[in-house]
Design brief:
Largest sheet: 6 strands, mixed
CATH class: Alpha Beta
Distance between the termini: 33 Å
Number of helices: 10
Radius of gyration: 19 Å
Structural class: alpha/beta
Number of domains: 1
Shape: globular
Order of helices and strands: EEHHHEHHHHEHEHHE
């Protein structure tokens, strides 16, 4: 079974049309249960190396917030750029070494607002905020990824016979206080797109990000995906490294 940690970015803008956060991004970090303990141990070791104590210990932050460490805010205000970059790279290497796959979905919030105002897109008009359609696309992307994993284990005869034994499942792990809600999973599974999503466990586990290594790593990925979407022509070494090392595997847009 996979533990799929949801990261998000672009949620904290003042309005749907906030020009500083034009995209709302969700990432799903697929961690096989057999890798969970070693990943947590490696993350704990790098935190001790950078902070001198475990994350959340005296004198260290409770969580690694992407915007803080990247821009030198909050706890990291006194850290020089090189030191912050080393922390970011060490965190990303936890995923790179394992080629931990990440599935991403996103929506352009301005395009959503325009379509909502026009009222001529039946798919968009049913949603009050961009969160609904992009989460729906996110779960669909997860389901497709699980189908590909399950088909990879089938023989040619099984594929020809239409057999589809479910050998890989995924439990969605979201953060307390984030934008994702339990109802989104049940709504997706009742939809036309989700009715065949047999690999998804039909509930969401909510955790505090301070107690979830996977959530913090997934948030980092979501942050760098959003930065890439906002200015794709600029250099994005962190995004490129994740994509080139088979961490970022699929990016699904919500088409408006």
């Amino acid at each position: 079974m996979f533990l799929t940690y949801v990261g998000e970015s672009g949620i904290s803008g003042n309005t749907i049309t906030d020009s500083s956060q034009p995209h709302q991004v969700y990432t799903g970090l697929f961690v096989h249960e057999s890798q969970s303990i070693s990943m947590n141990g490696e993350f704990d070791a790098l935190c001790r190396r950078h902070f001198g104590v475990p994350l959340g210990g005296e004198g260290s932050p409770s969580v690694i917030r992407p915007v803080d460490v990247f821009q030198g805010l909050g706890y990291f205000a006194s850290w020089p750029t090189l030191k912050r970059n080393e922390l970011i790279q060490d965190c990303l290497n936890v995923m790179v070494r394992r080629q931990t796959p990440v599935i991403t979905s996103y929506i352009n919030k301005q395009e959503f607002a325009n379509a909502k105002a026009a009222g001529n897109d039946p798919y968009i008009t049913v949603w009050e905020t961009p969160t609904g359609p992009v989460i729906n696309k996110f779960f669909f992307a997860m389901s497709m990824f699980l189908d590909e994993l399950n088909m990879a284990n089938l023989s040619g005869d099984q594929i020809m016979e239409g057999a589809m034994p479910i050998t890989n499942h995924a439990l969605v792990i979201a953060q307390n206080g984030a934008s994702i809600q339990s109802k989104f999973m049940s709504e997706f599974l009742r939809s036309d797109e989700g009715i065949d999503a047999t690999g998804l466990i039909d509930d969401i586990c909510f955790v505090d990000p301070g107690h979830s290594v996977g959530s913090q790593l997934s948030n980092l990925v979501a942050f760098f995906v959003r930065r890439w979407l906002q200015n794709p022509e600029r250099p994005h070494p962190y995004f490129d490294g994740l994509r080139d090392n088979k961490v970022i595997q699929v990016i699904y847009p919500v088409t408006v």
